[in-house]
């Protein structure tokens, strides 16, 4: 029987490939999940990594924001802990699972940023991603693969940074599902490249709408002056894990309706929510360690004890701090 909805959407966009989008969605998060088993995330390695972190000057308000953001992240982790136990009708859960995962990442990242800079105000997703890259990823304050980033959105530069990495593979992410750490690293780098390419396209589209570009009297970047204008602006932007996570959530929130629930079933969806849970739990665990070094020790200890006593969520607080 013809797939009427697919055919109609394909008529609107001949480059429409929801199967590619789904395969990449599953492969990236599975790659991340595999790498969560790295020694870099062990208690000993996290203690070593953050041993030199100094307490930051904070206000009562910023301290409260850090703690509140961490608990908000745990709320989303608790949702995923329930969703991952449902193994029937996994297509029904995929979209809402991604959204829960993303907001857990988002609130954790905000906690990390406010713990780093008390003046940071978590007001929107783009700002959080940009500042997180500038304050955290750029300074290697998070273990890989969360630290993977490119420093520019100029095509030749971001491709050069990624393709020179020994773990990068030219195989398209949509065409493989990682089975080991090597493939997992390649999947993460491939998704980073795809996100940088997407952001490059968005920024170039914005540049073409600018007065500066229109004043050149051109329609593309073939002339030297147009390229120079483009490259100056693209050089100012980077791409990190938070940008990738935001794009991931955007697909689930806004992409075409058939992206996660139409057509042939993908068997890799069965463990999808498990992968999301593992990645988010590990990320929150890292942020707990980091925040414990930034906040006063007595305050952070009191915060943990408060959650143990008063949290009504099913997530064990001990599992996040030990």
Structural notes for this entry:
The protein is mostly helical. The protein has 14 helices and no strands.
Question: Helicity range of the residues?
Answer: 55-70%
Q: Could you give a short account of the major beta sheet?
A: none
| SS content category | mainly alpha
- The value of Rg in angstroms is 21 Å
Mean pLDDT: 93
SSE blueprint and pairings:
Elements: H1 4-12, H2 18-35, H3 43-49, H4 60-83, H5 90-116, H6 125-135, H7 155-163, H8 181-208, H9 211-214, H10 224-235, H11 241-254, H12 272-294, H13 297-310, H14 318-321
Helix pairs in contact: 2-8, 2-12, 4-5, 4-12, 5-6, 5-11, 5-12, 6-11, 7-8, 8-10
Please describe the structure with a list of short key phrases separated by commas or semicolons.
mainly alpha, 63% helix, single chain, 322 residues, 0% strand
Brief description of this entry?
Helix content is 63%, strand content 0%. By secondary structure, it is an all-alpha fold.
């Amino acid at each position: 029987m013809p797939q009427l909805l697919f055919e109609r959407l394909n008529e609107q966009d001949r480059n429409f490939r929801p199967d590619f989008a789904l395969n990449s969605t599953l492969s990236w998060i599975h790659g991340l999940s595999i790498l969560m088993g790295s020694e870099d995330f062990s208690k000993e390695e996290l203690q070593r990594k953050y041993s030199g972190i100094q307490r930051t000057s904070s206000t009562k308000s910023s301290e409260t924001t850090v703690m509140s953001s961490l608990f908000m992240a745990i709320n989303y982790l608790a949702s995923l802990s329930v969703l991952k136990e449902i193994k029937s009708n996994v297509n029904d859960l995929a979209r809402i699972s991604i959204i829960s995962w993303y907001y857990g990442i988002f609130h954790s990242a905000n906690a990390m940023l406010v713990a780093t800079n008390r003046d940071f105000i978590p007001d929107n997703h783009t700002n959080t991603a940009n500042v997180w890259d500038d304050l955290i990823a750029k300074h290697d304050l998070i273990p890989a693969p969360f630290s993977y980033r490119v420093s520019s959105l100029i095509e030749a530069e971001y491709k050069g940074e990624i393709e020179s990495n020994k773990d990068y593979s030219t195989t398209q992410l949509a065409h493989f599902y990682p089975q080991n750490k090597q493939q997992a690293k390649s999947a993460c780098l491939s998704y980073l490249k795809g996100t940088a390419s997407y952001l490059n396209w968005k920024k170039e589209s914005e540049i073409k709408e600018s007065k500066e570009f229109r004043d050149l009297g051109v329609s593309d970047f073939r002339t030297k002056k147009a390229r120079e204008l483009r490259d100056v602006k693209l050089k100012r932007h980077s791409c990190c894990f938070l940008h990738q996570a935001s794009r991931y959530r955007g697909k689930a929130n806004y992409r075409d309706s058939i992206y996660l629930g139409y057509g042939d079933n993908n068997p890799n969806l069965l463990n999808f929510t498990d992968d999301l849970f593992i990645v988010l739990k590990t990320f929150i665990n890292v942020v707990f360690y980091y925040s414990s070094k930034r906040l006063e020790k007595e305050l952070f200890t009191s915060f943990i004890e408060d959650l143990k006593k008063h949290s009504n969520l099913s997530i064990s607080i001990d599992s996040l701090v030990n």
